[in-house]
Amino acid sequence: MASFQLQINGENRAVNVDPNTPLLWVLRDHLSLKGTKYGCGIAQCGACTVHLNGTAVRSCSIPVSAIGNQPITTIEGLSENGDHSVQKAWVELDVAQCGYCQPGQMMSAAALLKANPNPTDEQIASSLNGNLCRCGTYLRIKQAVKKAATL
C-alpha cells in the first residue's frame, strides 16, 4: 500500500492503495465516483474514459502510480450543474438508451471539442472510434457532438 495525492475534479484527494491499482477502481471503490464505468478492463470499450491532464484516457488501464500530479476530470467534474455543452446536447437529442457507455462517450466528445471546436464527421468518428455502445446510438452520439459544437 502507498499514499497518493490526486487532483480530481479540482479537489485534492488522498488515497492509500496498492500502486498498481487502476485509476478506475480508485475512482469507483475508494472515492465513490461511480459515474466512470467498468466495461472491459482492457482499454477497448471506452466506458471508463476520463480526462488526464485534459486528454481522454482509459482509466481501467492506468495504474494510480502513473498519475503523478496530473489533474483528473471525471464525468462528475465535467460540469457542476450538468450544463457542459456535451451534456446539454446529449439531453436535448435524447442520446442515451441504456446509458452505460454515455459517460465515456461524453468524456471523449468533450476532449475532442476542447481540442477541435468544429470537428468534421470524420474527426468525430475517429475520436469516438474506441467508445463502444451496445445499444447502437452512434448516429445520435455523432449528432450530439455536432450540436455541442454549436452550443
Break the fold down into its secondary structure elements and pairings.
Elements: E1 2-8, E2 11-17, H1 23-30, E3 49-52, E4 55-58, E5 72-73, H2 85-92, H3 102-115, H4 121-127, H5 138-150
Antiparallel strand pairs: 1-2, 3-4, 3-5
Helix pairs in contact: 2-5, 3-5
Organism: Roseivirga thermotolerans
Keywords: 2Fe-2S, Iron, Iron-sulfur, Metal-binding, Oxidoreductase
Domain 2Fe-2S ferredoxin-type: 2-78
Structure description:
It is a single chain. With 151 residues, the protein is of the alpha+beta class. The chain folds into 2 domains: 2-77, Roll (Ubiquitin-like (UB roll)); 85-150, DNA polymerase, domain 1 (Orthogonal Bundle). 33% of the residues lie in helices and 16% in strands. The chain contains 5 helices and 5 strands, in the order E-E-H-E-E-E-H-H-H-H. It has helices spanning 23-30, 85-92, 102-115, 121-127, 138-150; strands at 2-8, 11-17, 49-52, 55-58, 72-73. It has a 3-stranded antiparallel sheet, with helices on one face. Helix 2 (85-92) crosses helix 5 and helix 3 (102-115) runs parallel beside helix 5. It is globular, with a radius of gyration of 15 Å. The chain starts with a strand and ends with a helix. The mean pLDDT is 96. It comes from Roseivirga thermotolerans. Keywords: 2Fe-2S, Iron, Iron-sulfur, Metal-binding, Oxidoreductase.
